[in-house]
Amino acid sequence: MPAVRFQQVEKTYTGARGTFRALAGVSFDIARGEFFGLLGPNGAGKTTLISVLAGLTRATAGHVTVMGHDVQADAAAARMSLGIVPQELVFDPFFSVRDALRIQSGYFGVTKNDAWIDELLHELGLSDKANANMRQLSGGMKRRVLVAQALVHRPPVIVLDEPTAGVDVELRQTLWAFIARLNREGHTVLLTTHYLEEAEALCHRIGMLRKGELVALDRTANLLSASASTMLRFKTDQALPAALAAQARTTGRIVQLKAKDAADVERLLAVLREAGVRVEDLEIGRADLEDVFVEIMNGGRPSAAPAQPQAVAA
Amino acid sequence: MIRLAGAQTLFRKEILRFWNVGFQTVAAPVLTAVMYLLIFGHVLEDKVQVFDGVGYTSFLIPGLVMMSVLQNSFANSSSSLVQSKVTGNLVFLLVSPLSHWAWFVGYVGASVVRGLVVGLGVFLVTVWFAPPAFAQPLWILVFAALGAGMLGALGLIAGLWADKFDQMAAFQNFIIMPMTFLSGVFYSVHSLPPFWLEASHLNPFFYMIDGFRRGFFGTSDVSPWISLAVVGSAFVVVSGIALRLLKTGYKIRP
After folding, report:
1. A87-116 pLDDT, tens per residue?
2. Any domain includes A175
3. pTM, entire model
4. Residue where a domain terminates, one of A136, A153, A170
């Protein structure tokens, strides 16, 4: 039995301006103990899928189970198994950090939980804020409390919906160290993020959503090696020749060009030299997840996902 | 066990919520009721006929107590829910395994407590203006608890329905306020013209206040048993609707 199973999940919103199909039949499994990354551009349906999983919204069609419990038919058991860190920075202004955690723990029926609450506060660097009112906390601190609230009932499945959006480096490192520990201890983790280097570093397996459809699903290593291309990265202040500009990914001064192999690298460099483009900090490296992501989102690669939705690695 | 602990936690959280801001949630409504008593009591004492042998001020006190109970029970569940929806922290409850019964018990239970605490406060402050009588005290408790429960459940419905604070205010100003004021808080309905007398009999709030007063004076406009039947049925109907909305996730689980 997988930790999470999505089966043909559809979600259609009907509004005054017609209907919008947020999820168009998404199916995949997340194995127990897996660290799974769900990626996709804004509006791809990531948060909708997580909302269906958490019971915050109802799927128009399809089924979702958590640890074997259907999120609709057996909602209480499914929610007991889930810890959700919501994307929005929400808090209850009437309470202190410790009160908020005790209350959340009580909702899950865990009434004597102070030892675990203290550990959570310590691990997330919140110990000295335990008695502070939620209103007095900075955004990063509120984010930590959200993580603690999600973990207060020790759920086997942890869902983090863009937990590091707008968060400083220190918290990111604290957070990932802690989540990685929980994952090693057997917790299943589902992560959505915009930071692809995080997904590449942390996730065993990755699914990518585009316009409500799963367009990629594979082990992170396979996704990277399937995109066997080499990346040529450099900085320049000059315009690229037209032939290269079309295929280049440019971020400010940084230019990235895809090359099939070493000979192709030679060719690209020759074109640059002929055009008289001065380059700095030239590096040649393997494609990273961002390259794969861009390739898939542009529809450059046929998807392996729909053909084998049940394939579970890890 | 989980359900019990969960409902208990929500109940306690809701009580803490209003107690933490007790100055506005308890002290303010008590002061308002005292103002009503001073002004209406002073102006109308010798001009309005109510029950035989009962002075206007003593007649007014139970009315004001019950009005405060009803308004504050409604305010507690409704404002807590709307606030949680607007600020987004309702998600903490939505991801929890609490059943619709637990939500109902937690929100309505705390609303009843707030209503009764404010009602008791109003009573303790106003009682000095006219000596109390407790002719049939059991009715006092029964109607205060049932009325508070019904308004707590009504507040839950309003809180689920309203997306914004101004919708909440509309519910309060156009439904709750008229129904309380036209229920006989300030007068005996028998002093009304026939049409309004009949109209009052369609208002469940009238039965709550009439039955509540019965407990103090041993006399009322209608039999307390009829009032009990009406208020009891209203409570069951309103609670049924509230539970149904919670179960289907009306507006909170789209």
Report:
1. 889 999 999 999 999 999 999 999 889 999
2. yes
3. 0.87
4. A153
Answer whether B76's CB lies under 8 Å from B110's CB. Answer: yes
Q: Of the residues A153, A175, A190, which one is the last residue of a structural domain?
A: A153
Q: Which CATH number characterizes residue A51's domain?
A: 3.40.50.300
Residues A167 and A293 in one domain: yes
Same domain, A71 and A102: no
Helix H or strand E segment including B33:
helix B28-44
**CB distance from A183 to chain B under 8 Å?**
no
| Interchain CB contact of A93 with B (< 8 Å) | yes
Which residues between 189 and 218 in chain A have a beta carbon less than 8 angstroms from any beta carbon of chain B?
none
Please report whether residue A90 resides in a domain: no
Question: What ipTM was estimated for this complex?
Answer: 0.89
Q: Which site among B19, B79, B96, B250 would you substitute to test the A interface, given the most A Cβ atoms closer than 10 Å to its Cβ?
A: B96
Candidates A84, A110, A111; nearest CB to B95:
A84
Report phi then psi at A93, rounded to 5: -70, -5
Question: B84 touching A, CB under 8 A?
Answer: yes
Quick check: A81 contacting B, CB < 8 Å?
no
**At CA A92, angle to CA A89 and CA A98, rounded to 5?**
100
- Residues of chain A in contact with residue B254, where contact means CB-CB under 8 angstroms, are 57-58
Q: What is the pLDDT of residues A119-176, one digit of tens each?
A: 999 999 899 999 999 999 988 889 999 999 999 999 999 999 988 877 788 888 888 9
Distance from CA of A110 to the nearest CA of B (A): 8
Total domain count, chain A: 3
Q: Residues A77, A169: one domain? A: yes
Give the Å distances, CA to CA, from A79 to A75, A117, B149: 6, 19, 29
Is the CB of B127 inside 8 Å of chain A's CB atoms? no
Query: What percentage of chain B exceeds 70 in pLDDT?
Result: 99
For residues A167 and A51, membership in a common domain is answered with: yes
Q: What is the rounded distance in angstroms from the CA atom of residue A146 to the CA atom of residue A9? A: 27
Contact A51, A71 (CB under 8 A): no
Domain housing A119: 96-153
Check whether residue A245 and residue A264 sit in a common domain. Answer: yes
pLDDT of residue B67: 93
Contact A109 B2 (CB under 8 A): yes
**Cα distance from N-terminal residue to C-terminal residue, chain B:** 29
pLDDT digits (tens, 9 = 90+) for B48-76: 777 777 888 888 999 999 999 999 999 99
Contacts of B88 in chain A (CB under 8 A): 86, 88, 90
Report helix angle B224-248 to B100-126, nearest 10: 140
Chain B contact for A76 (CB, 8 A cutoff): yes
When CB atoms are compared, the residue of A86, A93, A106 closest to B9 is A106
Regarding whether A268 and A184 lie in a shared domain, the answer is no
Q: Based on the domain organization, do A183 and A238 belong to the same domain?
A: no
Q: Are residues A106 and A250 in the same domain?
A: no
Domain contains A314: yes
User: How many Cα atoms sit within 13 Å of A266 on the Cβ side?
Assistant: 3
Distance of residue B252 Cα from the nearest chain A Cα, in angstroms? 8
The CATH code of the domain that includes A235 is 3.30.70
Whole-number Å distance between alpha carbons of A198 and A218: 16
